[in-house]
Design a protein that fits this description.
The protein is of the alpha+beta class. Helix content is about 30%, strand content about 30%. The protein has one domain: OB fold (Dihydrolipoamide Acetyltransferase, E2P) (Beta Barrel).
Length: about 120
């Protein structure tokens, strides 16, 4: 009887692990691009005096087209990544370059993470 219980317990644990991996333990379900191919037309060093910066994007594709995207410090892994994002936004504004913005944890215009500057 105890062998049957051990096998049953092992099967349940294995099934739970498989379900966890298959249904997205590693990546949030809605992480993705907020905008691609957009122009930065406005950069703010903070939004509502928060620990963040904001950019207004125009054109492109995605759920945040023609909207402000907030970049909270908590949206990226460390301060250096955050500061490079702000510098990238200023560079895109100054040189009229396009940007792609990615949210690592969802699809909210209030949680920009990665900012890619492109021609």
């Amino acid at each position: 009887m105890s062998n049957i219980i051990k096998r049953l317990a092992s099967t349940v644990v294995a099934l739970a692990l498989v379900v966890g991996v298959v249904f997205g333990v590693a990546t949030p379900a809605h992480a993705g691009y907020l905008v691609t191919g957009a122009s930065v037309v406005h950069v703010e060093n903070t939004s509502s005096n928060g620990d963040n910066f904001a950019v207004l994007v125009k054109g492109g594709n995605g759920p945040c087209v023609d909207k402000y995207i907030i970049f909270p410090k908590s949206g990226v892994s460390n301060l250096d990544v955050y500061e490079r994002g702000y510098e990238g936004a200023l560079t895109a504004l100054a040189y009229d370059l396009k940007v792609n913005v990615y949210d690592y944890s969802g699809d909210s215009c209030r949680n920009g993470g990665q900012l890619v500057v492109t021609k």
